[in-house]
Amino acid sequence: MSKIDVVLGLNYGDEGKGKVSTFLSQNADIALRCTGGNNAGHTVEFNGSKIIFHLIPSGILNDKTEGVIGNGVVIDPRVLFEEISFLKDQGVDLSKLHISTRAHLIFPYHIAEDKLEEFLKGDDKVGTTARGIGPCYMDKANRIGLRVIDMYNPNFEKKLRRNIANKNKVFKLFGFDTLDEDAIVKDYLNYRDMLKPYVTDTVLYLHNALDENKNIICEGAQATGLDMDLGDYPMVTSSNPTIGGIQTGSGLSHKDLTNVYGVCKAYASRVGEGPFITEQNNEIGDTIRELGHEYGATTKRPRRCGWMDLVALKYAVRVNGITGLVVNHLDTIGKLGKSKLCVGYKLDDKVYTEYSDDVIGRESEVEPIYEEFTTNFNIEKETNYDNLPDAAKEYIKAIENHLGVPVKFIGTGPSNEDMIIR
Ligand code: GDP
Ligand code: IMO
Ligand code: MG
Predict the structure, then answer these.
(1) What is the pLDDT of residues 104-116, one digit of tens each?
(2) Residue 318: how many CB atoms within 10 A of its CB?
């Protein structure tokens, strides 16, 4: 029987999905990305080197693991080929990479539109990564997007020129620089040839792999809080990083899935704008940022930091059908001395222990209810649960009790070896 394990972010991204996915894919036949694009930054410390993945599933680092970029991913070819070239220099065999015919392409006009949209939103800006992700998914929904397979259609150049010309009219209207149509067409005709060896009918490829009893690890990108349906709309990304996105973004069916691991940190972080009920916009947050090295892997922006929010996490566990949790950065809170877990929200004198839409738009009025824990332990690089001090075990048990899901893996450092398996 084949096994498909899914790794999903439960907060606002950057929970350590890359590290966990590399770790879990050690014996996997295929590592798969299904959603998002190069808004993702997945940091992996592997055999002593630090690598940040944006598009390629990190499991490709394992010699025997094939990499698949599924149909739900949006691909900026410039970034893809930078990543390919970097990985080749690291000695990774890129003939193992397969890219979906149906994946949509990001063009320079999407990046310009991303900046224009943010400018027009003014104070309501989302704080996007400015990588053109939202506009690319907008064009996909608007049925003017161009997919990998479309590059090999004789109409490709005509459709691309029409898109560029139309987008330029909008840029001109708002006083933004227009884009060089011929230069873009030339670049993308070149990318068409460069992409050719990787292009695969990935839906068929994955289903054939299942027939051959192969194991697959799906590396989620972004997270539940950023999901455009189930997250903090409109302060979200333009895709579905929750479990449904894994299926629509790969063509794999729900009945093929085995374990769905939800990744969180022993504290919380968010990059970009939007609500963050347990944010510590103070010295505590600054300390967490420095101890956890919380600076964006994609944009280098300082991440906003705060306490773990078990109310939001319970919601994320439910909507994704999480079967096991991964709690990273337990080593980091061990350096804080004291840490808090948010176990409820107080709003209008009412206490909420389940996430409720009553808080939508009123997040800044919510008073988090905390339980405090002593977290003064040095557990860096620990790999054995039995060696953890009682204080660390109590913290993990409190998370399990509130969320009703077992903690299967605990992160004790940035390397993929710094993991406790339970
Ligand atoms: P992703 O986007 O979910 O893959 O996460 P990022 O790579 O953006 O951010 C996670 C950060 O935490 C990276 O710098 C990782 O190296 C680091 N990290 C992951 N797990 C742990 C852990 O258990 N302990 C420590 N100290 N660092 C970790
Ligand atoms: P990984 O996979 C953290 C955030 C952006 C912004 C919002 C919308 O590394 O966890 P977008 O560019 O997607 O339109 O931006 O989503 N965001 C992330 N934050 N980690 C990510 O990915 C993110 N991908 C998008 O900061 O608030
Ligand atoms: Mg990240």
Answers:
(1) 999 999 999 999 9
(2) 16
Q: Which amino acid, one-letter code, is at 175?
A: G
**Ligand 1 atom index nearest CA of 42:** 4
Is 104-194 CATH 1.10.300.10?
A: yes
- Protein fold of 263-421: Adenylosuccinate Synthetase; Chain A, domain 3 (3.90.170)
Q: Is 293 a catalytic residue?
A: no
Confidence of residue 298 (pLDDT cuts 50, 70, 90): confident
- Sign, CA dihedral 197-199-202-203, equals negative
**From CA 193, how far away is CA 37, in angstroms rounded?**
21
With tokens 């997945």, the residue in question is 42
Cβ of residue 291 lying under 6 Å from some atom of ligand 1: no
Ligand 1 contact, 219 CB (< 6 A): no
Q: For residue range 377-387, what is the model confidence (pLDDT) as tens digits?
A: 999 999 999 99
Supply the DSSP symbol for 268. E
CA angle (223 as vertex; 217, 224 as ends), nearest 5? 115
Sequence spans of domains, the chain: 4-99+208-260, 104-194, 263-421
**Does the CB atom of residue 66 touch ligand 1 within 6 A?**
no
Q: Among the residues of 249-356, which ranges form H helices?
A: 283-292, 310-320, 330-333
The Cα 228–Cα 52 span in angstroms is 25
Catalytic, 98? Answer no
Is the domain spanning 4-99+208-260 CATH 3.40.440.10? The answer is yes
389 burial via Cβ count (<10 Å: 0-12, 13-18, 19+): middle
